[in-house]
Design brief:
- By secondary structure, the chain is an alpha/beta fold.
- The protein has twelve helices and eleven strands.
- It has an eight-stranded parallel barrel, surrounded by nine helices. A two-stranded antiparallel sheet has the order 5-6.
- The chain is globular and about 70 Å long.
- The longest helix is centred in the C-terminal third of the chain and has 29 residues.
Length: 408
């Protein structure tokens, strides 16, 4: 199993004049530390207008900085929003390829649609069509990586003439592609499109087994027609994490921040009605958390094995190791640790990363490479068959010309 970290730039009110700047630089320091410690991936979302929940709206810029502060950690969008009103598709391909060059081929290309009305309606995107917009944009972006020149696109949502989209990524045919998933249907769709599955719902090892089985059944089925020109057969899950030798200290350091993360997601994605620039989401959280099942008691009692999905891997090294062994046995390819929730202290996060890397990570690292080789060998016939079903890259009309301005 690999280990990733998720950073969404949560910033509960009240804000001081330098709060955003301090947060961004603290997270850069945390990622640089994670790179030195041997973590495998860093993942950053793209969100817009979600005050306090996420201030990371230009993740491609932030990850450019990450690429210059790190050496080996892989750099992931979790996720880039694909409906063209968020990001014109050619700009997506250009940014991903540029980041791949700057990072020396370390990019993981996560794709998604957005779920919140705050974001969708802010960019004029209809909820009913966002999945179709995603599908067209993912197909077009994959072609932009491999077609030289790009042979054009005439879809309902993506339309573009023949152009040579530059630069091209270092990784060939393109960086590994992923899809954001939050339910079983999305897991199945990711598998049928040959995309890695990025799960942002919290669940325990028993549920992991169900999701893993559904995913790999989809990869092996005849319905798998890759969205890209390679199959990225990987399933990852988000798990809250705070590691401390004393379980009670770990819980005390993480409980409010992790529960605020969950509350903010529900607030913007479901039950909330924010007033832009005025609503204090942290205050609403403190007032409503108990009635929404997010008080401290929801983390369960201290002592014994971890298993509460809301609490995740928050505890001692021994507790976390035992939990992750169960996820590993269930077939999880990557645990993405949520370590930056509202109000969690920079010093506590760094201490947790160091303790985890020293006392928990090594045994999983030792097993991972051999397990990946066995999995690749097992899946090779299914992957080859899936790629044979994918329409190949196209060749543009060699007679196509961009007319001089006087001819338009």
């Amino acid at each position: 199993m690999r280990f990733g970290l998720l950073f969404g730039m949560q910033l509960p009110r009240p804000w001081g004049p330098d709060a955003e700047s301090r947060l961004f630089h603290e997270v850069l320091d945390q990622i640089e530390l994670a790179d030195r410690l041997g973590f495998d991936n860093v993942w950053c979302p793209e969100h817009h207008f979600l005050e306090e929940y996420s201030h990371l709206s230009a993740s491609e810029v932030f990850l450019g900085a990450v690429s210059q502060r790190t050496r080996t950690i892989r750099i992931g969008h979790a996720v880039m929003l694909m409906p063209p009103a968020f990001n014109p598709t050619a700009r997506v391909a250009e940014r991903i390829a540029t980041l791949d060059i700057l990072s020396g081929g370390r990019v993981e290309f996560g794709t998604g649609e957005s779920t919140t009305p705050t974001e969708l309606l802010g960019f004029g995107i209809e909820r009913a069509t966002k999945r179709d917009q995603w599908a067209e944009a993912v197909d077009a972006a994959a072609r932009m990586f491999v077609e030289e020149p790009f042979a054009g696109y005439d879809g309902e949502y993506v339309s573009m003439p023949v152009r040579n989209v530059l630069p091209k990524p270092v990784q060939r045919p393109h960086p590994p592609m992923w899809m954001a998933c939050g339910n079983r249907d999305a897991i199945r769709l990711a598998a049928h499109r040959g995309l890695g599955a990025l799960n942002f719902s919290f669940f325990g090892p028993a549920e992991t087994r169900k999701w893993v089985d559904t995913y790999y059944e989809g990869i092996a089925s005849e319905e798998c027609v890759p969205a890209g020109f390679a199959v990225n057969a990987q399933i990852a899950a988000t798990i809250p994490m705070m590691c401390h030798r004393d379980e009670a200290t770990a819980v005390d350091r993480a409980v409010d921040g992790i529960q605020f993360f969950n509350f903010g997601l529900g607030y913007y994605g479901g039950f909330g009605s924010p007033s832009p620039g005025r609503t204090d989401v942290w205050e609403v959280f403190q007032r409503e958390r108990a009635e929404r099942g997010m008080d401290r008691a929801a983390f369960g009692r201290l002592g014994g094995p971890l298993g509460n999905p809301a609490r995740g891997a928050i505890g001692s090294p021994e507790q976390i190791r035992e939990l992750l062994r169960r996820h590993e046995e269930a077939g999880l390819d990557q645990a993405i640790f949520l370590v930056q929730g509202g109000g969690m202290r920079h010093e506590d996060v760094c201490e947790s990363l160091e303790l985890f890397a020293t006392e928990v990570m090594p045994e999983f690292k030792d097993r991972h490479d051999k397990a990946e080789l066995r999995k690749a060998e097992r899946l090779r016939p299914a992957v080859d068959a899936a790629l044979a079903r994918r329409e190949p890259a196209r060749t543009a009309d060699p007679g196509y010309r961009v007319l001089p301005r006087s001819k338009h």
